[in-house]
UniProtKB/TrEMBL annotation:
Residues 167-218 are annotated as: Disordered. This is HTH marR-type domain-containing protein. Keywords: DNA-binding, Transcription, Transcription regulation. Gene3D superfamilies: Winged helix-like DNA-binding domain superfamily/Winged helix DNA-binding domain. GO terms for biological process: response to stress. The keyword Heme does not apply. The lineage of its organism: Bacteria, Bacillati, Bacillota, Bacilli, Lactobacillales. Residues 199-208 have a biased composition (Gly residues).
Amino acid sequence: MTQDTQQLLRLFGRLFTQRGFAQSAMWTLHSDHREGDAPRGQLRVLRLIAQHDHLTNADIVEALDIRPSSASAMVAKLEDAGLITRIPSEADGRVQLISLTDDGKQFIESVRNDKDQLADKMFAGLTADEQAQLTGLILKLVGSLETGDQDQAVDAYFEKLGQFGPRRHHGHHGYRQEWDGGPSRGFGGYGERPDFGGRPHGPRGGRPGSHPGDKAAD
C-alpha cells in the first residue's frame, strides 16, 4: 500500500497547487469563522443582517463574537457603501436598527450565486454520483486525521528532513537562514551551508549580466 498512499499524497499536492482551487477552498472554509478585516468581516455582517432583519450593533457583536469597535466600524463602512440603512427604534429612539438596502440585498444574492457557480465549476469534471462518493471518502479521511494519530509520524519525518536543510533563526534584524550542521556532520561534517559550485548570485539572486548594468562573466 506504500506506493498507493504516496501517489495519493502527490495527487493531493497537485490539487492544492491549483491556485483557483486552493483559494476557493480556503475562502469557503474561513469566510464564516473569522472576524477579519474588510471585505471578509463586512460580508459576515451583511450575511447576518440578511438572515435577521432590524439588528442592533449589540446583536451583531453577540452573534459574531467580535469587538464592539469592530462592529461599529464595519457597520459604518457598509452604510457608507449604501448596503445597509439604520433607523431609530420605535421603542427606544437611542437604539439604531440595521437593515439591508435594496443594493445590499442584490449584493448578497450575487455573492451567493457567484459562490455556487464557483463550486460547480471546480467540480464540473465529476458526475453527481462521483461528487457524492468523493464527499464520503474525504469525510472519512478527515475524520481519521482529526484523531491526531498520525501527528507523531509527521513530526518525526519533517524533523529528520530539517536536519539537512536551512533552518530559520530569529535574529536582531528578523529571520535569517543558516545551514544546520546537526546530525549531518556524520555525512561530511558541514558546519555551514556547503558550496555546490555553479554561478555566483547577482542582483535578485540572478546571474551577473542578467540585470541592466551588469557585465557578463568572462
